[in-house]
Amino acid sequence: MTEAVQRRPLPAAFARELAAAFGPRFTTSAAECLQHGRDESAYAPMPPDAVLYASSTEEVAQAVRLCAAHRVPVIPYGVGSSVEGHLLALRGGLSIDLSRMDQVLAVRPQDLSATAQAGCTREGLNAALRGTGFFFSVDPGANASLGGMAATAASGTNTVRYGTMRDNVLALMVVTADGSIVRTARRARKSSAGYCLTQLFAGSEGTLGIITEVTVRLHPQPEAIAAAVVCFPGVREAVETVIEAMQSGVPLARAEMLDSLTIRAINVHSRTTLTEAPTLFLEFSGSEAQVQEQSGVLRELAEAHGGGDFQWATRPEERSRLWTPRHYAYFACLQLRPGSRSLTTDACVPLSALAECIAETVEDIATSGLIAPVFGHVGDGNFHCLLLVDPASAEEAALAESLSERIVRRAIRHDGTCTGEHGVGLHKMRYLEEEHGEAAVAVMRRIKQALDPLDILNPGKVVQV
Amino acid sequence: MTEAVQRRPLPAAFARELAAAFGPRFTTSAAECLQHGRDESAYAPMPPDAVLYASSTEEVAQAVRLCAAHRVPVIPYGVGSSVEGHLLALRGGLSIDLSRMDQVLAVRPQDLSATAQAGCTREGLNAALRGTGFFFSVDPGANASLGGMAATAASGTNTVRYGTMRDNVLALMVVTADGSIVRTARRARKSSAGYCLTQLFAGSEGTLGIITEVTVRLHPQPEAIAAAVVCFPGVREAVETVIEAMQSGVPLARAEMLDSLTIRAINVHSRTTLTEAPTLFLEFSGSEAQVQEQSGVLRELAEAHGGGDFQWATRPEERSRLWTPRHYAYFACLQLRPGSRSLTTDACVPLSALAECIAETVEDIATSGLIAPVFGHVGDGNFHCLLLVDPASAEEAALAESLSERIVRRAIRHDGTCTGEHGVGLHKMRYLEEEHGEAAVAVMRRIKQALDPLDILNPGKVVQV
Fold it and tell me: Which of A192, A357, A438 has the highest number of chain B CBs within 10 A, making it the mutation to test binding with B?
């Protein structure tokens, strides 16, 4: 599944210089290297040769300059929650661990923005915002680092209302391949001043630069929140209810569709008694009156699509109880087949194609014989299949891989994307040209070559140079 | 104000080949060249040597390939409404006029998206959307082309609610410097599949590629809209009312602040009797109940800041009557000094700095002796000063230029941008390094060199190579 490995030992002079500069924060310990050579993907670990625990942007810049001088690959590491092999050290090199750079540097309620170091997690930032009346919206499930979320253009359950990481990043601090420090933008809410470096580095997965600081938008805490769960006769009816709500301008806060198998997994894992049918987990927010109004519209739309009774929750602890099963869906699904690993797909298609695309996929899964629950952020057109495989079975891995490929191709055929929010990493590289065309990938390659001429930044990922 | 002109005559072979390929749609007529060599900026015209009226993406690609073969500069032209000298043919060359590429190619209500050729104007697109229940939101005032709006990352009065052109572009079709045709993305509402070419070409002002098709988001027409006008004792109070509304999560549809001088200009121009004081023009939209609720919050906030009585309008013709003066503010202001031209500034700062920044600017204007009304999209932190100068007076031009420079520097000092929505063009190039730093501009330059190695795409704009 991966390119032929071209590893060379870490140059001795390089290791000496890093040890001299950073003391015990630079390590070649096998255990630490191993820990930094695996993520949440199904790939076997590929450890780097060394790890540096950086404490500042200047230190990252200094380390990258040494990497450039010695032609050593360099891979940024946040919390290791990526799912496409983003951080595997294909060619060895240095992993720069940013997790100690976890400070919230500024909270500016009046500007609706905050700045944090890249290693700060989304929960860390939200903890710092407690009591301000504002929150940071992007929630990919894992307690990912802000730098990692920016680097993969992550999104998650409330994207339908508040947008993706791209929509919420105002500016980045980035160390480029020559060890320069670039601030991509100032803090105005909009700007037309030159090429949009913020969005170029966002989603570049460490291949164009290492993100060290992130300035994000904040949103006011809504006055009222209501959560609801409702089940449907089929996936199509559930999806269409959400699409019609969006067409009516209902600002849904979250709209998650879980298929029957996911619900069964949840019932077992969380000891719930949800009806095992395609189900929407919904959240509404705004003023009390707005929440009432939105809920009313959804109730009508759901009813028209054969939806069952709504379960409601408005108090925080009730909402949490109602939604917690959704938050644990991933882990619950893994337990459908204890000992299995998941190859997780990430197709995202135009809304009009979503119901059909999911329906075709569910049939495809049934034919394949694999166990593969399906759930998704249906307001975005994005859904995941967890293809559960026995890690010891090459046959199952091949079966899952070919199913994953059909899911990708189906998404592209529907004018969608191979990855809505997980990123390319290693696993989706082969689809980039199919999705974007040769000319577009050639442009990406020229950008990579221009900004990283030595190919030291997370080499072998996103685009092949 | 501009670089030394390096013009060379159009190569005869080039002109022959274009004439052969495109017949009378290729012209070297002086009148047509002149028309394509000026925009709405205060710059004197700099005409290209020839104009091509293109009718398809393939034709644009063919023309660009000829330009590359003969090293002829090529500048895209939409409707000529840019304001920073974007389309001046500094080095002559070919202007590709896209205005005949004005077709709406697809309207997809279920996907909340539409695709149009780059020469289609925003009003053209909205006309095609009539009766669908959806609209295209970005409104920069002028009836600009969608390609031009994407190329300058335009925004306008309803950005506070619906976002900028960047936020509303899903995908672009672009002809690159070698005449390749690149589609930057498919039509999913989000994607993490590789470098974000959409946002790289958006805002690149024709220097990285020529946009030939634009796929944009659509928004559902709100059920109810209410417009209001309210005046304040000072600019600060007006601005703070809007900022507090945003902090409270009120989804204002529009929030425009006009200073007393702008109101005076409007009263003269539109024969209105508005109180000559800093004034907010507001728009609320949503369901009837939401509009009621939002209006109530704004009334309270305005009152707390000394705001006067609200004038309201809800029926379309009343709203139009109430808002029309705002839409004509630019022209009304020019009439404050008949025969004058305007050097229009475009500072955009973090919200917390806006009131102070405008207040300092108003004082600065008073000291300068220039007539310069101020108005702005205060929810975005963006404001414009129209520095009205006698086009025959070099002294006034210099005075205006130095005032404009102080406004830019003040914005940058407040961690804002020299241009919130107009773009860099020729006029803001000198501030790019001050705003972004040397390292960031070096990255932009490397991108330009990588994607346009012959420097034929709108040369001499945005970044100097």
Answer: A192
Return residues 226-285 of A near B (CB < 8 Å).
Answer: 243, 246-249, 251
How much is the mean pLDDT over chain B? 95
Percentage of residues in chain B with pLDDT exceeding 90?
Answer: 93
| Nearest Cα residue in chain B from A151 | B192
Segment A446-451 long-range contacts (CB within 8 Å, at least 24 positions apart):
A446/B450, A446/B451, A447/A200, A447/A208, A447/B195, A447/B200, A447/B447, A447/B450, A447/B451, A448/A207, A448/A208, A448/B195, A449/B450, A450/B446, A450/B447, A450/B449, A450/B450, A451/A176, A451/A177, A451/A208, A451/A209, A451/B443, A451/B446, A451/B447
For residue B108, the chain A residues in CB contact (below 8 A) are: 350, 352
Nearest to A183 among B133, B350, B436 (CB): B436
| ipTM surpassing 0.90 | yes
Domain ranges (residues) in chain A:
12-99, 104-220, 224-332, 337-425
The pLDDT, as a whole number, for residue A6 is 65
Interface test with B, best of A58, A152, A175, A191 (most B CBs within 10 A): A191
The whole-angstrom distance between B388's CA and the closest CA on chain A is 23
In CATH terms, the fold of domain B224-332 is: Alpha-Beta Plaits (3.30.70)
pLDDT averages per 10-residue partition of chain A, 465 residues: 64 98 98 96 94 98 98 98 95 98 97 98 98 96 96 95 97 98 98 98 98 98 96 95 93 96 95 95 94 95 97 93 89 92 96 95 96 96 96 94 98 98 97 98 98 98 94
Q: DSSP strand E in B299-458: where?
A: 311-313, 341-344, 374-377, 382-389
* CATH code of the domain made up of A12-99: 3.30.43.10
Do B334-422 and B224-332 have the same topology in CATH?
yes
Nearest to A164 among B190, B421, B423 (CB): B190
Question: CATH topology for B334-422?
Answer: Alpha-Beta Plaits (3.30.70)
CATH number among 3.30.465.10, 1.10.10.10, 3.40.50.1220, 3.40.50.300, domain B104-220: 3.30.465.10
Q: Strand, coil or helix: what is A372?
A: coil
The H-or-E segment that residue B336 falls in is none
Main-chain dihedrals φ then ψ at residue A235, nearest 5 degrees: -60, -45
**What's the CATH number of domain A337-425, 3.30.70.1560, 2.40.160.20, 3.30.70.2740, 3.40.309.10?**
3.30.70.2740
B390 in contact with A at a CB cutoff of 8 Å? no
Answer whether residue B104 shows pLDDT above 70: yes
Residue of A nearest to B221 (CA): A249
Residues in A closer than 8 angstroms to B382, CB to CB, are: 188-190
How high is the pLDDT of residue B7? Answer: 75
pTM score, two decimals? 0.97
Nearest chain B Cα distance for residue A363, angstroms? 22
Mean pLDDT of B71-99: 97
Tell whether A371 is within 8 A of chain B (Cβ): no
CB A139 within 8 A of CB A413: no
Interchain CB contact of B93 with A (< 8 Å): no
CA distance A185 to chain B (A): 6
